[in-house]
Amino acid sequence: MKRISYAQRDHDTIVADVVERLKLHYPDKWNDAYEDDLGMMLIETIAYTLDILNYYLDRQANETYLPTATERQNIINICKLVGYLAKNAVPVSANLMFSQENARETDVIIRRDAQILTRAGTTFELAEDVIIPAGQLSSSGAAVQGETFDELLKVIKELEDRISALQRRKRLPGVIGGAGVRHGGVEAVIGLGWKIELF
Questions:
Q1: Phi and psi dihedrals of 73, rounded to 5?
Q2: How far is Cα 173 from Cα 136, in angstroms, rounded to an integer?
């Protein structure tokens, strides 16, 4: 009697193994393996399901070892097991020097959140106002890599206006209050800042 090969688990191999075992154990009852046979349909459906389950089983097995893991959370969890705590990415911060050719009679103020583009194309934003005092040629200030997307605020405002308009026409249920607008999975909080929740 032939042993089942547990190493070959693809669809075609599973079908061939099942057909062979049926012919071996039920030679008088199972003597045809035609594609249009109801029994073959059931065997192929089961083989298809087993093929998918084997794929996910292999994926899960791969995710338990550091060299073969591909999902970030699984890699972090494996690292925790050996005492290594992964840290999130932190944007680069730099101290930038601003200078002018001629001293001015009044202070020159470069506002916080001003965007500075490097020659390499990296964007930095000032973390604080930089003031070049009157009579001075230069001053420095801290900057952080990245940029604030004012466009997002515009999109939220536009969404808020559309929701209000639809509610006035009684086409959209929701809540409008002085503190914000909420509908579906988006919440925009008006006031000191914006808050977006997607759920």
A1: -65, -35
A2: 59
**With left for phi above 0 and alpha for psi between -120 and 50, is residue 135 left, alpha or beta?**
left
Q: Write the pLDDT tens digit of every residue in 117-131.
A: 888 888 888 888 889
Do 94 and 124 contact (CB within 8 A), yes or no? yes
- Grouping H, G, I as helix, E, B as strand and the rest as coil, residue 176 is strand
Q: Which string of DSSP letters, residue by residue, matches 124-152?
A: EEESS-EEE-TT-SEEEEEEEES---HHH
How far, in Å, CA of 73 to CA of 53, rounded?
22
Say if CB 125 and CB 115 are below 8 A apart. Answer: yes
How many C-beta neighbours within 10 Å does residue 35 have? 7
pTM of this prediction? 0.41
Q: pLDDT per residue over 109-159, tens digit each?
A: 888 888 888 888 888 888 888 898 999 888 888 888 887 666 666 777 788
Domain ranges of the chain: 11-81, 93-145, 150-189
